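From the methods appendix. Each design record in this collection lists the tokenized structure first, followed by the designed amino acid sequence. Records were kept in a plain field format so they could be parsed without special tools. The example shown here is representative of the layout used throughout.

RECORD:
FOLD TOKENS (489 positions):
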């Protein structure tokens, strides 16, 4: 389906709501964390699973939560700006998919009369076009209920699609409840449904739990509809991979690798060089400009946006980072929630923490850590510094070993440094403190109070000398039978 068709499906005047079932723990993950919170290619599974529903314009989009309900809700709310569309229905005990869907119905406004899509929170590969296709067929045949089925060589534990003599869908029978003959059926239920709201409202309450698992099966809707003389359609598709639920860590890793490869192919096709695509872990939401070169072992996550002609040597971890054109990240950069302007040089081994802003043409060298630091255009901190809660002007040079002493054990305090300053090596700025422009701070200075514009500041201790001291020192130790080779041993 093309994007225009998709957009049309999204703009379809007939309203569509959605229910995503995500209450289960997922025992095969062997995790204390709810399955849908596990990350797939850098984002929680539930986020990827909800995206196609949003793309189709589902409103409301009801997420049925149970295990770690609050965390799941928080993750979903944080991931999508369009928060108003989401509703969260609590299913305190997981009594089956039918019960889960029933729990969601309270969140559907009484006035809603469109169609409802039902999917799972652990089905992150589902594409919006596939859902749009389901919805379209469902509406065209005027079915009360439609679902997507696939043919599998090994139908395993999936629900079997049982058809009547006329070839119409008669029921879905779970593997555990199936007869030997039914178990031979290779057409299975994917768990993706579209249903008319009027049908759902009445039918969900009619589901019982008299089956092998003692659960309320959503799949019983099929037989209920047929019993009421309503049409049920199975939309068969060959796109098997989209419906693979993720049940184990091994599946999580395999699907992550697939997603990464897809993203990498798209990026390479758009003009980005990946030196080693197998070790480029780039999130689905990341944007990268042309002629950017990304080295091995790089993770670029979240809503990062990287310009053109950028070079990232390798071994970098970047989340929610904006990088301007032509900037160069040498090996070993970690950066989070920050903005790096154009033509900057960062690293090797630099740590840009949240709230760092480099205006452009900056150099942040090895073993420099920044946090909530606004660094003016052309300013450099080339070696071994900590700049936290700081605002530094333009064309200032921050010498080796400069430290903003921002924390008194209770509170953080700001440091301000103006334009065109020379901050000498090993200077400590005891915050809160304000350094003007065109200030020269001698190396080793402890800056305790504000420094006005154009001033030289120093706090040198007088130097003392003891001639011949070293030879005496060695002599004292050698008498005790120790050996020393002088400095640096
Ligand atoms: C279900 C279908 C089966 C289909 C298969 C496809 C039923 C009865 N069976 O089986 O026909 O072939 O999916 O994957 O529906 N969930 C809840 N609350 C619950 C139970 C489940 O939210 O009480 C959620 C789970 O978190 C999961 C989804 O529903 O995301 C599916 O549940 P699962 O137990 O995996 O269903 P299956 O038994 O695999
Ligand atoms: Ca399943």
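DESIGN:
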């Amino acid at each position: 389906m093309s994007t225009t068709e998709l957009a049309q499906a999204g703009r379809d005047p007939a309203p569509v709501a959605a229910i995503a079932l995500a209450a289960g723990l997922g025992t095969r993950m062997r995790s204390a964390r709810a399955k849908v919170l596990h990350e797939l290619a850098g984002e929680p599974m539930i986020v990827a699973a909800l995206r196609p529903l949003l793309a189709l314009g589902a409103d409301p989009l009801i997420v049925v939560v149970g295990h770690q309900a609050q965390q799941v809700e928080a993750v979903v709310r944080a991931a999508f700006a369009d928060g108003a569309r989401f509703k969260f229905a609590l299913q305190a005990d997981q009594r089956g998919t039918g019960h889960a869907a029933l729990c969601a119905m309270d969140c559907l406004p009484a006035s809603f009369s469109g169609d409802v899509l039902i999917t799972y929170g652990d089905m992150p590969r589902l594409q919006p076009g596939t859902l749009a296709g389901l919805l379209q067929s469902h509406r065209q045949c005027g079915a009360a209920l439609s679902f997507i089925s696939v043919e599998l060589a090994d139908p395993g534990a999936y629900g079997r699609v049982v058809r009547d003599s006329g070839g119409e869908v008669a029921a879905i029978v779970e593997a555990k409840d199936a007869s030997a003959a039914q178990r031979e059926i290779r057409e299975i239920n994917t768990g993706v449904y579209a249903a008319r709201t009027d049908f759902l409202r009445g039918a969900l309450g009619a589901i019982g739990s008299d089956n092998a698992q003692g659960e309320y099966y959503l799949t019983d809707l099929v037989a209920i509809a047929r019993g009421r003389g309503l049409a049920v359609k199975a939309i068969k598709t060959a796109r098997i991979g989209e419906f693979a639920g993720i049940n184990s860590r091994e599946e999580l890793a395999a699907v992550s690798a697939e997603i990464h490869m897809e993203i990498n192919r798209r990026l390479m096709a758009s003009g980005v060089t990946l030196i080693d695509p197998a070790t480029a872990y780039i999130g689905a939401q990341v944007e990268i400009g042309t002629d950017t070169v990304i080295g091995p072992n790089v993770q670029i996550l979240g809503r990062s946006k990287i310009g053109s002609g950028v070079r990232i040597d390798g071994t970098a971890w970047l989340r929610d980072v904006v990088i301007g054109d032509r900037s160069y990240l040498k090996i070993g950069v970690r950066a989070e929630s920050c903005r790096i302007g154009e033509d900057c040089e960062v690293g090797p081994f630099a740590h840009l923490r949240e709230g760092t802003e480099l205006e452009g043409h900056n150099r942040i060298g090895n073993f420099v850590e920044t946090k909530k630091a606004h660094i003016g255009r052309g300013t450099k901190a080339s070696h071994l510094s900590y700049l936290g809660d700081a605002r530094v002007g333009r064309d200032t040079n921050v010498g080796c070993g400069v430290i903003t002493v921002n924390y008194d054990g209770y509170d953080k305090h700001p440091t301000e440094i103006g334009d065109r300053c020379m901050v000498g090596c090993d200077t400590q700025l005891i915050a809160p403190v304000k350094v003007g422009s065109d200030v020269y701070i001698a190396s080793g200075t402890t800056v305790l109070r504000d420094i006005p514009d154009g001033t030289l500041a120093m706090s040198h201790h007088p130097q003392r000398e003891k001639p011949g001291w070293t030879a005496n020192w060695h002599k004292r130790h050698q008498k005790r039978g120790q050996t020393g080779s002088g400095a640096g041993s």
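APPENDIX NOTE: The domain at 252-457 is CATH 2.160.10.10 (UDP N-Acetylglucosamine Acyltransferase; domain 1).
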